[in-house]
Amino acid sequence: MNKFMLERLVSKKEKLIQKYTFYKTFLPISINEKEEKLNKKIEYLQKNKELTLKQYAINAGIKVDYLEAEKANKLQKLEEKYSLKNKALKQSKLRALKKQDETEVNKIFDEKIKTLLASKEAEKEKLNNYYAPSDHIDESLTVYKEKETEINTILEAKEKVLKDNYNQSVKKQTERVKNKVKDLEQKIENLTKQIDKAKSSIEDLTYGINDEVLLRLKDLTMRFGGLLAVDKLSFDVKKGEIFGLIGPNGAGKTTVFNCLTKFYNPTAGEMYYRKNELEVTKLNDYQVHNIVKLGIVRTFQNVELIWELSILDNLLVAAHTNYQTGFFGQLIHTRGLAREEKVYRNKALKILKDLNLLQYQYAYPLGLPYGILKRVELARTLMTNPRLIILDEPAAGLNDAETEELSKTIRKIRDEYNTTIFLVEHDMGLVMDVCDTVCAISFGKKLAIGTPKEIQANKLVREAYLGEE
């Protein structure tokens, strides 16, 4: 088997795993949706029962909760209505006093207020009479009980049919999805065996990079005319770590990010990224719009949200690269697309909940606090199933409390979403608190790399930051 065929097998396996995850995620969402529909139908039947029995209950003088609530609500609205009318009369009286004699005005408006009160009492009496029991309570009570028994029998039969249909539908769908998942598991297992068997028969595709390394920069150089922004920079970012890149203003930190995400094409050097279990790829060969497909996402120094969309829609937009439905499927809005939309909407709501943003789901970004917008950007990156999240000065513009909250959020994202985080930051408190490894640069050159404590104690770093000799 040649290299091309092996790459095809690995790509096919990744797509099958994505499908497998989709079906496993969709099943509980679909069952929950069916259950909600069932509950709404049963609730509708109960309301119909109440409406049918309403007059019988009134005639029999039975104090039913929904009747008591209905009567209280109507009385409250009656009070509010006449309170407004009374207020309007008082305002009219004040205006009339400016133009007419006080005695005459008082006489006219006293009569109007008297009429208003009489009208209110008449409406109140009419309302009380409507809810008053009939003169033949015993007979009405017998009729009510007979009618209630009859309706309950019909209602139980209808509820049974609805529940049977629900259980049957859930059973069929569960069985169908289980078979699909089982079939996918078998296919993934077979592909895994083929890949493992073929690995030994072809040349190494990892450029000699061990399994722990997710990203490697080797002699990365970036020139802008005569300005050397990044000078032969080299380091490794390991899987699952929080890696910090620090340096004074103008050190070339954001330029490194722009090279990684192909906003810039580096002048020289290589950028290696572990694409999958088998292959390490060179980011130098990719276009900017294909970087996200590798599982690399980023945020920017300035908030880059779509201001015309709600927070929830901002997250849903980010999921567009994950859709399996093609152009024509989206054009005619197939059932497959509807299923995918449900899955990604559910995922977006879960992410918002995890990042304490659920209360803002229908809000628009414009006018929200800056700290909230920064968290929304972080939430949006998670919609793409990222393997590497690049954060460009995430704490810029945040106060101490917001920075502390951001620190917790970054750790939570790394741990719960099984991702690697690579950040540039000026806030040394945040860097030293969250990072596992820190690389310090100055004028595009690497000064030191190590743990936060090692970087704090490094003489070259202290000279670059504090001007110490």
The gist of it:
The protein is of the alpha/beta class.
Strands, helices and their partners?
Layout: H1 3-60, H2 65-97, H3 102-130, H4 137-199, E1 213-224, E2 227-238, E3 242-246, H5 253-260, E4 268-274, E5 280-282, E6 296-298, H6 311-318, H7 327-332, H8 335-354, H9 370-381, E7 388-392, H10 400-416, E8 420-424, H11 428-434, E9 437-442, E10 445-450, H12 452-457, H13 459-466
Main attributes?
469 residues; alpha/beta; Rossmann fold; 2 domains; four-stranded antiparallel beta sheet; 10 strands
Helix content: 55-70%
- Total strand count, please? 10
Q: Using the coordinates above, name the CATH class of the largest domain.
A: Alpha Beta
Query: Strand order, biggest sheet?
Result: 6-7-8-3-9-10
As for the CATH topology of the largest domain, it is: Rossmann fold
Classify the oligomer: single chain
Please give the count of helices: 13
The SS-based structural class is alpha/beta
Strand content: 5-15%
The topology string of helices and strands comes to HHHHEEEHEEEHHHHEHEHEEHH
Total tally of structural domains = 2
In terms of per-residue confidence, which ranges show pLDDT below 50 for 5 or more consecutive residues?
none
Give the distance, in angstroms, between the N- and C-terminal Cα atoms: 60 Å
Give the overall pLDDT as a whole number. Answer: 89
Q: Radius of gyration in whole Å, from Cα?
A: 34 Å
Most strands sheet: 6 strands, mixed
CATH superfamily of the largest domain: P-loop containing nucleotide triphosphate hydrolases
Indicate the CATH architecture of the largest domain: 3-Layer(aba) Sandwich
Approximate shape = flat
